[in-house]
Amino acid sequence: MNVFKKVLLASVATAAVAAVSAPAMAEEGLMGGELSANVAFVSDYRFRGVSFSGEDFAIQGGLDWGHESGFYIGTWGSSQSSSDAEIDVYAGFSGEAEGVSYDVGVIGYLFDGTLNPNGTGDIVEVYASVGADLGVAAATAGVYYGLDALDNTNDYFYPYLDVSVPLGEDVPVSLDGHVGITTGNGGDVIDWSIGVSTSYAGLDFSLAYVDTDAAGTLTDATAVFSVGASF
Questions:
Q1: Is the pLDDT of residue 88 over 90?
Q2: CB-hemisphere CA count at 13 Å for 43?
Q3: Predicted TM-score (pTM) of this structure
């Protein structure tokens, strides 16, 4: 699954920073689908520009099952500073039509502490995105709608744009950019990142500069390095 943290998870963080990509290996035929896993080490777990690991390193990993119909379910977890762990669970449907990919689903963020985008407890988001290969670049535009599971006065939207530009055919390096804005939750907060990513010897590497105009002690601009693998 490609959510904000794989990016996101991909972005995801910015989940982009999580260094999780499409599985290199997957077990096929499990109830008509494929089972895959991923693991990553990041120098700082940034979610929409905010450090969830106290500006320290984090260990992350996930497990996904995807059906040939496009339906998928999965879970993803990370160490973080305010509690023992964050565990995400999600389900959705993805596919492609006329050269345009699409993805819709719902994700829940489960914390044993109190740190999350709204500063309260566990939250749920629904999301939708479309993507296309534009030749010189691949772009994905999407939006998350967040509903605070404990207090629905904190509803918000998070539209975002991700762009990846290959830098050469012989060297598998891409220039990756992300920008997103959290709006409707007491004001607008912008986060963005720019970096490079590559794969070598079965591992995925990325280095990104991450920044946000969010207030707080864990929002300083920083460079984030990640290394991960998919199975």
A1: yes
A2: 11
A3: 0.82
